Amino acid sequence: MGDIFGRALLDYQHGNYSEDIKTYSSLDEEDVIPLPYLFRNFSEMPKLEQKALKLARGKVLDIGCGAGNHSLYLQDKGFDVTGLDSSSGAISVCRERGVKSLVNSSILSYDKERFDTLLLLMNGIGLAGSLTNLDHFLQHLASLLRPNGQIVMDSSDIIYMFEQDEDGGYWIPDTGTYYGEVTFTMEYKNEKGEPFDWLYVDFHTLQNACEANNLNCELVHSGEHFDYLAKLTKRQY
């Protein structure tokens, strides 16, 4: 079947909501993604998301647009916004909800237009998958920017998920990989999807990656739970 995320969104959109998406991660965490939360309006969004949307300017690409909450908000404000998602179900839901410009594609396969603002919310940088892919991912994003364009993104430092010792240090298993690399599996209505890699990146690591790729990286907002909002721009020479 595939596209578990899209199927769940379509069910909710069509009034067939009976359960949420379950997630399993390589951190031995089980969790749920409540479907109503994926259809939230501006007033229901966390402050970090609201701040991100207020930073948007010019022509906008909403990467990983999901059910289209951010695209719809910006469209209502008069922005020229395109929603992009690799889930065909998500794109169908966005279309039904009234998002005018949509692209069904992974971000790394997309290079058709240039934008003033790239939005990567709900830890959109996670699409990079791993720290080793982050350079390539940032370079691709930068290639989609118009002159003076910006990338507005959030992420979390998931160090808090590891045990802490009395000195305040953290016990991180020595697996040879960065601790923010997580593999997720989604389950919906007893069907499990394919595992996928996801990246949570702490701000200092993101800053270093931006530095290496000729990008400025500005911390815009720190959330209450190790999360943050950042703005990336190309260096001017």
Short key terms for the protein model shown above:
237 residues; alpha/beta; Rossmann fold; 7-stranded mixed sheet; 32% strand; 3-demethylubiquinol 3-O-methyltransferase activity
Please summarize what this structure is.
By secondary structure, the protein is of the alpha/beta class.
Description:
This protein has 237 residues and is α/β, with parallel strands linked by helices. It has a single domain (4-234), classed as Rossmann fold (3-Layer(aba) Sandwich), CATH 3.40.50.150. The chain contains 6 helices and 14 strands. The N and C termini lie far apart (49 Å). The model has no long low-confidence stretch (mean pLDDT 92). Its EC number is 2.1.1.222, 2.1.1.64. Pfam families: Methyltransf_23. One of its GO terms (biological process) is methylation.
- Spatially, the strands of the biggest sheet line up as 5-4-3-6-7-14-13
Low-confidence stretches: none
Largest sheet: 7 strands, mixed
Continuous helix count? 6
CATH topology: Rossmann fold
Number of strands: 14
Q: CATH top level?
A: Alpha Beta
- Helical fraction: 25-40%
- Measured by DSSP, the beta-strand proportion falls in 25-35%
State the domain count. Answer: 1
- CATH superfamily membership, which one? Vaccinia Virus protein VP39
What is the first-to-last residue Cα distance?
49 Å
The CATH level-2 architecture is identified as: 3-Layer(aba) Sandwich
Mean pLDDT: 92
Radius of gyration: 18 Å
SS-based structural class? alpha/beta
* Secondary-structure element order, N to C: HEEHEHEHEEHEEEEEEHEE
Please tell me what the overall shape is: globular
